[in-house]
Predict the structure.
Amino acid sequence: MDLRRQHLIDPAICIRCNTCEEMCPVGAITHDANNYVVNYEVCDGNGACLGPCPTGAIDSWRLVATPYSLDDQFGWFDLPEEQAHAVEAGALPEESANPPEVAAIVEKATAAQGGRVPPPYSAAHPYVGLYTRDRPAKAVVQGNYRITGEGTETDIRHVVLDFGTQAFPVLEGQSIGIQMPGTDARGQPPVVRLYSVASPRDGERPNHNNLSLTVKRVEGGQCSNYVCDLQKGDEVMVTGPFGDAFLMPNHPEANIVMICTGTGSAPFRAMTEHRRRHGPKGPGKLMLFFGARTPEELPYFGPLMKLPGSLIDVNLAFSRVPDKRKEYVQDKMRERADAVAALLKDDNTYVYICGLKGMERGCEETLSDICRHTGAEWKDISARMRREGRYHVETY
Amino acid sequence: MNSIDYSQKIPNNVNLSEDRRLQRALESWQPHYLDWWKEMGPEGTTTHDVYLRTAISADSQGWAHFDYVKMPDYRWGIFLATPEQDRKIAFGAHKGEAVWQDVPGEYRSTLRRLITIQGDTEPASVEQQRHLGATCPSLYDLRNLFQVNVEEGRHLWAMVYLLHAHFGRDGREEAEEMLARHSGDADKPRLLGAFNEETTDWLSFFMFTFITDRDGKYQLAALAESGFDPLARTCRFMLTEEAHHLFVGESGVARIIERTCQIMKENKTEDVKTFGVIPLDMLQRYLNFHFSVTNDLYGAEVSTNAANSYNMGLKGRFEESKIADDHQLDSTAYPVMHLVNGQFKMVDVPALNSLNERLRQDWVVDVQAGVSRWNRVFKKYGIDFELTLPHNAFHRAIGHFSDIQVTPSGDVISNDEWNRRCHEWLPTIEDRAYIQSLMGAPVTEPGKFANWIAPPPRGINNQPVDFAYVRFA
């Protein structure tokens, strides 16, 4: 199905000040006595109306099969619900919907969780494989920023991709494939590389059709160097989105325990940002264990330190700070054993591990120890959590 | 042309550095302005870090830039909207001629008066609101108040620029007077009546920004049609800022209504005073008051001054270019309400003389639309109540209804009856005392709101509602 992204104005918030109509350079916005509305045929998504809107009502978007007409919009008092799209049902078979080459990568990455784990019951339905190698989406690079300290060995990049008017719906925890141009030494198209999306579902910038990736430059790594060297304005071929299990729960009571190292933080940045934007007040807690060599090498260190404690409980472990004891995420988890144990007892707790291959073993041991101290058995707890889609591991 | 030069003392997009004389004149006015801000602006706030919107260019990309700013360091400057190529005068005797970049000599005094009156309202409202911070219902609301204040300050700059740039010595003197008059001052009051009343509480502030700032919108829109291009471009940019002020007012009252409805529903009572929220009949009285005093700001319904300004091409109608007529109005009529033999009747008067009334009517339509949106909140809660706008002739001090007494529903009554019953329709001393009793100590913990107002559905610039919109030093 051909889905389109339609720009709309939320009539429940709009104060009819006419600023958007005044600002629109292409004359796409008009009004009647009831509402200000956007003409789908005329709007070219230039965004000139977004900044000046005093209420944020202008920043409203829907994925639609058939765009709403002006007459539809004139009659509204509220925005319509998101339409359910047939593609959702069609794209979600019982087993993973990822294409074979992607499925192989995912299987390896999730091996440590002990087979396929279902998504949280309250996760939003993901779109999977809308774009393929034969029919990739074209994204444009909006920015590429180094987010680790200059002068450190670790070069981690925050890359923002914009999809223009192509529908590219992603959820926190999903990945996309980057298709490098050209062919490899054997004349084959280069193997696809997957990168976790680091931005929430409504865009790197709220309600923009863009997303971000957290990519580390790996010496000799073809694709990582390709991505890290992208310049603003470059066009990139993208496949996906992929992933239908490592997704965040949507119910506000859900506690999310996030354990990561390095660029494994990408999906957790996305989940945290989604909570920050849409439900910071819910009873559910966010708890993060994040390891890096030094603060300068911890991606998003600055922004992370600015998040309020009421939103997220941040625990950072550094293993290479001069004159300081080496600390790993497991050490931090042990320090916070009481809090972790309390969360594990709660049926609303979801645990996610993401990072370098091998870290899951240390984490499992630690969780096991923490449980033992409270008289519980991690083996039993984890089996139930897996069954219920509450324990997810992705390590590469 | 449109990017703003911040390297200058006075940020601007009018190439101020190329006109040394003007630059010097404005630079000598600037410290007087800052003194005025410190003395008459928001009280006790000079060290607060406020999450404010500052224009960094006058086009759509750049004028909504958000960051923490200490208010005295706010970059007040001079920003005009992008010029329109080959713009022609759209109305009046000069219709079809190229717009003026300089003031036509014969219209000098009329233009100066229009600009002075508009300019005088801007610092006036800052003065009226200067004590409100002490009783703010949340950091979110405090920030919105300060945003309104700094932008009113910038609107003063916009008018002062025109006075300095185009009116020579007279203009410079007018600019000084803007800082010398003070709202409510016995000796040197502001020019318009409504701007001499202190804004004593947040309900008044929200009503003021919803109703009276909307008069500002319509006045600016009429001036944005002006044949004097620098004035038109200045007002067009000011309109984009004014929108936020209307939003603060409309959403503020809507949140008060929401909170009162919640309490009524939860406790199944109309006697909400015991729960510390604002009763609906009191809201209606405040609405009556602000609507009627703002009606007066439009001036006399039938006015030769208004006719002259239009004919000269200085001040147009609201959305002049969207009106399908000859844009000269020499021989057309327009119906204006009069009292004829004790009955209100629409009487045709020459269209040219009825322009004040026409602008006021356009404004009423806009106010009514907002009130209807408020009324949807009652519906949502299943509460059988509607706020209504009072009759045009209710509680008027200017124009041809100023010497009669009329009820909100439009019955002409005697002075005696008015004196006996006006407490039913206008805020009483008890009302004001009750409102002030609700608004005691400021609420300054992020995400917390005073009991009498609901939180907003979303924060500013996509920040969460519990964001620290103001940080105290």
User: Anything to note?
Assistant: The CA atoms of residues 12 and 352 of chain B lie 37 Å apart. Chain B touches chain A at residues 59-64, 217, 236, 239-240, 242-244, 246-247, 250-251, 365-366, 369-370, 376, 446-447, 457-458, 461-462, 464, 466 (CB under 8 Å).
